[in-house]
Design brief:
The protein is an alpha/beta fold. The protein contains 15 helices and eleven strands. The protein binds flavin mononucleotide.
Length: 365
């Protein structure tokens, strides 16, 4: 091939070598990927403004001026304000009873400390705004919004030379964000880990890429091999945004119990469920998701109330390392994650396989 197919407009925009973005909650994973020539976006939706500022500094100290991103959730549908306790008091009794029954049936232990959710930006708009202000003050190179349109921060971000990426699951969300002027769109399909829409990756990426003109489109959902990377570029994407791929890598701080489950998992071990947060989410199947899927289970509550309800189970399982109860967001590409490699090796393998894929299609002349 005369031209390097992996040299895309996303590489030019971000000054990176490979068009691969790691979404991760682990700072060590983020810096490994960045220093190996990719890009990383750190998920900080659960953190206080002070923690976010400290993490931004931690990354800056280790990447020698290279750019990075921070991801928050900015859902417009959550209450404007309200403490955890106030929000908790709105949960109906039949739902509380159902959660108690699950707790008894599976002998779910209590969390060891207070529920972690106090700072989740998806809890209320006031919290999300405080998190966002830190990113603006710190002039982080890229702000990504995993839930909710980031259009309202575009002016403030661009004044500070910050790029804004929006993550979408529907073509009409992409259209609105493109019209608003976001700098890149992550078109995320049903295969993806975490909160995701119902349109498959193959369809959403091609559809959004067709409407995007010069704005880079980034494919997300199920990308776990170099063939997925090559296919994403063929669909019109300028890069890939990946989550599941990094969860079980060497540097990842994910619990070893979950890492082992991920390495053994096939795509049949993930489930698409609203039972954890009230919004559709792909996770490893667990007793909580299974019970809420049964006939006779109460109607799942809207965000953020279902998240408040599930937090006792999730945190009880995690704090006590109950392998039979624990879950984690995981995408349908999980079956290709089979060995625990350093993040740098994962990136290089992805790139090498993508190049081999292109060469096998078009030849190397
Ligand atoms: C453990 C985990 C947690 C996630 N949490 C968030 C989040 O807080 N915000 C967000 O924008 N995306 C989140 N995602 C989704 C990723 O941003 C990404 O879109 C998704 O992982 C892509 O699909 P893949 O896992 O198949 O690569 C999460 C993904 C994983 C694996």
């Amino acid at each position: 091939m005369n031209k390097d197919p992996l040299r895309t407009k996303l590489c030019d925009m971000l000054g990176i070598e490979f068009p691969v973005i790691a979404f991760t909650h682990c700072k060590d994973v983020a810096t490994s990927v960045i220093n190996a020539g990719g890009f990383a976006v750190l998920g900080e939706a659960m953190h206080t403004p002070d923690e976010i500022a400290a993490d931004v500094k931690w990354i800056r100290d280790r990447v020698n001026g290279k750019p990075f991103g921070i991801d928050l959730v900015l859902p417009a549908s959550v209450p404007p304000s309200g403490s955890l306790d106030e929000l908790m008091s709105n949960i109906p009794e039949p739902h509380r009873r159902f959660a108690r029954e699950i707790k008894e049936r599976y002998d779910v232990p209590d969390p060891k400390g207070a529920v972690d959710l106090h700072q989740w930006g998806g809890l209320n708009q006031e919290l999300a705004r405080a998190q966002l202000d830190v990113l603006l003050d710190e002039r982080v190179p890229v702000i990504a919004s995993g839930l909710g349109s980031p259009a309202f921060i575009l002016d403030a971000a661009h004044e500070r030379d910050i790029l804004v990426f929006g993550l979408v699951g529907k073509a009409r969300q992409a259209k609105r964000q493109l019209e608003a002027g976001v700098d890149a769109i992550i078109a995320q399909g049903y295969d993806a880990a975490g909160h995701t829409g119902a349109v498959g990756t193959f369809s959403i990426v091609a559809e959004v890429a067709a409407m995007a003109r010069d704005t880079p489109i980034i494919a997300a959902g199920g990308v776990t091999t170099g063939r997925h990377l090559a296919a994403s570029l063929c669909l019109g994407a300028a890069g890939v945004w990946t989550g599941t791929l990094w969860l079980a890598c060497r540097e990842s701080d994910v619990d070893m119990i979950i890492k082992e489950r991920l390495l053994a998992a096939t795509n049949e071990d993930t489930t698409y469920s609203r039972s954890i947060s009230g919004m559709p989410m792909r996770v490893l199947s667990c007793p909580w998701t299974q019970e809420w899927a049964k006939p006779g289970a109460p109607e799942v509550l809207n965000a953020p109330y279902q998240m408040l309800l599930s937090s006792d189970y999730i945190q009880g399982a995690n704090d006590n390392r109950r392998a039979d109860l624990m879950t984690e967001a995981a995408g349908q590409g999980v079956g290709f994650v089979t060995t625990m490699k350093p993040a740098k090796q994962i990136l290089y393998d992805l790139v090498e396989e993508a190049l081999e894929t292109f060469e096998s299609i078009v030849g190397d002349s």
